[in-house]
Amino acid sequence: MNTSIESQFPTYQIIDGEGNMVNDDYKSEITEELARKFYEKMIFARLFDRKGVNLQRQGRIGTYVPFEGQEAAQIGSALALEDGDWMFPTYRDHGATSAFGHSLKNIFLYWRGFIEGCVPPEGKNIFPPAVPIASQILHATGTAWADKKKGNDRVSLVYFGDGATSEGDFHEGLNFASVFNVPAIFFNQNNGFAISLPINKQMKSKTIAQKALAYDIPGVRVDGNDIFAVYFETKKAVDRARNGEGPSLIEALTWRYGAHTTTDDPTKYRDQHESHERREKYDPMTRLEKFMQKQGYWDEEWAEEVQKDASRRLDEAVEEMEKVEKSDEAVMFDYVFGTDVWPVEEQKQAFFADRSER
Amino acid sequence: MREITYLEAVREAMSQEMRKNDDVFILGEDIGVYGGAFGVTRGMIEEFGPERIRNTPISEAAIAGGAVGAALTGMRPILELQFSDFITIAMDQIVNQAAKLRYMYGGKGSVPMVLRTPAGSGTGAAAQHSQSLEAWVAHIPGLKVVQPSTAYDAKGLLKAAIDDENPVIFYEHKLLYKTKGDVPEEQYSIPIGKADIKREGKDVTVVATSIMVHKALEAAEELEKEGIDVEVIDPRTLVPLDEETIVNSVKKTGRLIVVHEAVKRGGFGGEIASVIAESEAFDYLDSPIKRLGGLPIPIPYNPNLEKAAVPQVPDIIDAVKETVRFK
C-alpha cells in the first residue's frame, strides 16, 4: 500500500489539460449553462487583470497586483459562496471579489489609492484586501465564530498564498477554527512562489493540504486550474461548514504567469520559460475552452459577444473610476475613529488652517 | 455607598453589560473555571456559559484576530490578555488590523472591541510579566487607551469602553486589583477622555497614571505637613487625552511633574510635558517640568530591585520639593 503523503493528498481533477472529463463525480451537474457561466466570469477576470496592468503602465492607477493564470482558482471558489457569506481576499484576489459582486469601479479606485475602493456594495461581506500576510485568516476565524454564535448559516472563506502558511497566524487560525468547529473555509492558492521564494524553500512539506492533518480537519488538494474541481470541492467544504460540520483546508495548485506586483521583474528569480510552458499546457481558460468544444458547448459568436461585453463593462468601470476627482484631504481624518474624538478634530482643523495660510 | 475591590468592579462592569447585551462576550486564556490569571472572570462561566466566556488556546494573535473578526460582524468582544506583556504577540492584529480597519474600510466597518489586560510591576513576576507598555499603543491612531486607577473609575470606564465604536485598550494594574473603593451598584459610564482631579492643590500639579495616582496622593499627604499644596490629576485615558484639565491646572500652579511606572524614556510623560510646552500654560511655568518614570532596565525579579526600578513615594516627594524650591 502506498502511504506517501502525495498519495494521501492526491490532486483532484475533473477536467484534464486537454479538456477531457477524467471522472464522473459531478457529471450530472456539469451542464452547458454552468460551463458558460464559468467562461463568462473567467474571461472577464482575465481581461480585467490585463486592463489593470495596462492602467498601471500608463500611470492611471498605482502599483497593481496581477493574477493572470489563477482565474479558475478564484472564480471557482468565489462562485461556491452565497450572498451574505464572508469573503476575505488578499491583494491578488480581485478576480474573486469581482466574481462575488464587488463594484468594478471601486476595485479600480482601490488601485488608484482611494479608501472608498475598499467599500463593497451593500449586502456584500467582502473584507478589504489583506496586504500583510496571513492576518486575514484570523479574521475569518472570528467572523465564522460570531456567525456560529448568532446561529445564522453564513460561512467565511479566506484566501491566502503558499507563503502565508509559514506565518503563525495560519496555524493559530486553523487551530482556533478546529477547536471551536467554526464555519470557515481556508482556501489556499499555491502558485509556487512567495514573491521570489519557491515553495520548496518555503516548506519541507510535500503538500499544503497535509497541514490539515495537524488540526484534524479535512484537507484537499485540487488542480487549481480546473475550475470544475475547484468549484465542486469548495462547494463541498462550504456545505460542510454551513451544516455545522466545521472548517476545511483547500489547496488549489496554480501559477501566476506575471510578476508578484507591477513593481517587480519575475525574470530575476524565476525561469520564465516555466511560465510559458505552463500557459501552453495548463492554462485554465484554454482548458475550459477545449472542454466546451469537446462537449459541443462552444460557440464562437457567443464567445466573441462575451468578450466584447466584458471589455465594454471594463471600459465603463474605468471611465467611472477616472471621473472621481482627486481625494478630499478631509477623509484622512474622518475614518480614524468611529465617534468624534477631539484630538483628531483639532488636528484636522490645524491641518486646513496651515494650508490656507500658505 | 458600597465598597468593592477594583477587581470586582471590573467583573461587575462586564457582568452587568453581558446580562443586558447578548453581543458582548469575553475570550482569553484560563478565563473559564479557573477564573483568569488574576481571578477577574471568576464565577462568570457559571453564569454566562462557555459560549460567552470563551476559554481559548494559548494563542494571542488568534484571540486578538478572532476578536477583530467577531467585532466586524457587530459583536462586542472583550478580550483578556493574561499579562499585558503578551501584547507583543498580538501586536500585528491590534496595530495593523484593529486600529486600521475602520479607516481602510472607508468608515464602513467598525471594530468595537475592548482589550483588557493587567500591567505593571510589584508582584514579583519578573522581566517578561511586569512591563507597562501603554505608550506603544497610545502612539497608534485608531486606538483608544484607558488606564483606570480606582475601582470607581474602572467600572465606569469599562462600561464606556464596551459601548465605544472603536478598539479600546484597557490597562488594569495588578497591584490595584485588591484596592477598595466606593462603587455604585447600578451601571454608569465615565466618558473616555475626561481627566479627574484626584486632589485639588495650588502649588504644584502632579499628573500621575494608574498606580502612580495612589503614590502621588500619598506623597501629597506628606507634603501637606510641610505646607506644600499638591494638585493630583489622573488623566484616566491617554487617548484621547484631556489636555484642557492639565493645561488649566498648570496655569494655576505654575509647576508640573509627570509620574508613571513605564520606562521614562519614550514614555507617555514626554507627551504630557510636550502638550504643556506647546500650550498657553508654558508662560505660567515657574520651574522646569519634571518627569518621573521607570528606569531603562528590565523589571528585576528580586523584590528590592523591583521596587527600586520604578518611582516610589519618596521619589515623588523629592521631585515636588525640588520643583517648588526652584528659583
From TrEMBL, chain B:
Residues in Transketolase-like pyrimidine-binding domain copies: 4-179
SUPFAM superfamilies linked: Thiamin diphosphate-binding fold (THDP-binding) (SSF52518), TK C-terminal domain-like (SSF52922)
Cofactor(s) needed for function: thiamine diphosphate
SMART domains: Transket_pyr (SM00861)
UniProt keywords, alphabetically: Oxidoreductase, Thiamine pyrophosphate
Gene Ontology molecular function terms on file: oxidoreductase activity
Name of the protein this chain belongs to: Alpha-ketoacid dehydrogenase subunit beta
Source taxon at top rank: Bacteria
